[in-house]
From TrEMBL:
Main location, first listed in the record: membrane
InterPro entries xref list: Palmitoyltrfase_DHHC, PFA4/ZDH16/20/ERF2-like
Domain notes: The DHHC domain is required for palmitoyltransferase activity.
Coiled-coil annotated spans: none
Enzyme Commission (EC) number: 2.3.1.225
Record has Nucleotidyltransferase as a keyword: no
Protein name per the record: Palmitoyltransferase
UniProt source species: Cyprinus carpio carpio
Entry's Gene Ontology molecular function annotations: protein-cysteine S-palmitoyltransferase activity
Catalytic reactions on record: L-cysteinyl-[protein] + hexadecanoyl-CoA = S-hexadecanoyl-L-cysteinyl-[protein] + CoA
Lineage: Eukaryota, Metazoa, Chordata, Craniata, Vertebrata
Protein's UniProt keywords contain Membrane: yes
C-alpha cells in the first residue's frame, strides 16, 4: 500500500515536468525579449514602447489560456449516469454477460445515449461504475471518465475534453501568435548581430536563441493547431478521428457533424465576441450532442434535459417510447 502511494506521488511529480519545461522556456523568453532586446538592444524609444505593448498583450493572453487549459478540471458524467445501489447490486450479482448487457440497456432507456460499444452493447465503465454518455471516455491518467474526451495532454498535465477544449484551442492559437510576433520583431536584430553590425554581448546570444526557439515552436504548433481546426470543422475528437463512434446502425465518423457553423458554435458558443477570450462559452453540458441525421425535435430526450427521469410510471413509458426510436441514418 505504501509502495503504491509512493509510486502515485512520484507519478504526479513527474507529470508536471513538461509543464515546468514550457514555463521555463516562456519565462526565459520574457526576460530575453523585454530586457535583452527591448532595454539593451533597441535604441528607438518609440519602437521600444510599441514592441513592449504588443508583446505584453500576447504574453498575457498566452499565460491566461495556458493557465485555463491546465487548471480547468475535466468534466465527468453527472449522477444520472451512475448506477443506483439496486442497479449496481443486480449488475454485479448477474454472472451472465448477456444478462448484464440487458440490465444496462434497460437503465440506458431513460438516458440520452445514442452511441454503442463495438459489440453493440451500452458503453459502461467498470472502474467508474457509470454508463458512458455519448463521446465520453475513461482517462487512465486522470482515473475518471471525461465528457467529450479529446486526449490527455502531457504539456498541460490535464485531460482535454468538454470543459477545457476551447481553452486548449486558444492556448495553441495564442502560442502561435506569441511565436510569430517574437520571431518577426527579432529577425532584423538577429541579422545585425549575425553580420556584426551590433556589438557582441549577452544580448546577442539571447536574441539568436529567441529566433530559433520561436520558429521551432511555431512549426510544431502550426501542425497541431491545423489538425485541431480540422477536427472542429468536422466535429470530431482526436479519439473519434482514430476510431469512429458506433451508433445503432454501425460506425459513422460524421455522426456528430452538423455543419461548419453549428460545429464551431458547439465549441466556442453563439456570441462571437467571446470566441477569442478564455471564458467558458461552449454549448450544452457535455452529456448529449446534436446528431447529423436526427433533429432534436425528433428526439425529446435530446431536446429537453427535463425528460431525463430516474423513475416514474407514465414518464418511464415515455422514455421507453423515445429510447428505442432513436435511429441513426448513415450515408454511404
Amino acid at each position: 500500500m505504501a509502495l503504491s502511494r509512493a509510486l502515485r506521488c512520484c507519478q504526479r511529480i513527474f507529470s508536471w515536468i513538461p509543464v515546468s519545461i514550457i514555463s521555463s522556456v516562456v519565462l526565459w523568453s520574457y526576460y530575453a525579449y523585454v530586457f535583452e532586446l527591448c532595454f539593451v538592444t533597441l535604441s528607438n524609444d518609440l519602437e521600444r514602447v510599441g514592441y513592449l505593448l504588443i508583446f505584453h498583450v500576447c504574453f498575457i493572453m498566452f499565460c491566461w489560456t495556458y493557465w485555463k487549459a491546465i487548471f480547468t478540471p475535466p468534466s465527468s458524467p453527472s449522477k444520472k449516469f451512475h448506477l443506483s445501489y439496486s442497479d449496481k447490486e443486480s449488475y454485479e450479482m448477474e454472472e451472465r454477460p448477456d444478462a448484464q448487457k440487458q440490465i444496462l440497456a434497460e437503465i440506458a432507456r431513460k438516458l440520452p445515449i445514442c452511441t454503442r460499444a463495438q459489440s453493440g452493447a451500452i458503453r459502461f465503465c467498470d472502474r467508474c461504475q457509470v454508463i458512458k454518455p455519448d463521446r465520453c471516455h475513461h482517462c487512465s491518467v486522470c482515473e475518471t471518465c471525461v465528457l467529450k474526451m479529446d486526449h490527455h495532454c502531457p504539456w498541460v498535465n490535464n485531460c482535454v475534453g468538454f470543459s477545457n477544449y476551447k481553452f486548449f484551442l486558444l492556448f495553441l492559437s495564442y502560442s502561435m501568435i506569441y511565436c510569430v510576433f517574437v520571431a518577426s520583431t527579432v529577425f532584423q536584430y538577429f541579422l545585425k548581430f549575425w553580420v556584426g553590425d551590433l556589438p557582441n554581448g549577452p544580448a546577442k546570444f539571447h536574441v539568436l536563441f529567441l529566433l530559433f526557439v520561436a520558429l521551432m515552436f511555431f512549426v510544431s504548433l502550426m501542425f497541431l493547431f491545423g489538425y485541431h481546426c480540422w477536427l472542429v470543422a468536422k466535429n470530431r475528437s482526436t479519439l473519434e478521428a482514430f476510431s469512429a463512434p458506433v451508433f445503432q446502425n454501425g460506425p459513422d465518423r460524421n455522426g456528430f457533424n452538423v455543419g461548419l457553423s453549428r460545429n464551431l458554435q458547439q465549441v466556442f458558443g453563439e456570441d462571437k465576441k467571446l470566441w477569442f477570450i478564455p471564458v467558458f462559452t461552449s454549448q450544452g453540458d457535455g452529456h448529449y450532442f446534436p446528431l447529423r441525421t436526427l433533429r432534436e425535435s425528433e428526439n425529446p430526450l435530446l431536446a429537453n434535459e427535463g425528460k431525463w427521469m430516474e423513475d416514474g410510471g407514465s414518464d418511464e413509458e415515455s422514455a421507453d417510447e423515445n429510447g428505442p426510436s432513436v435511429i441513426i441514418r448513415t450515408e454511404s
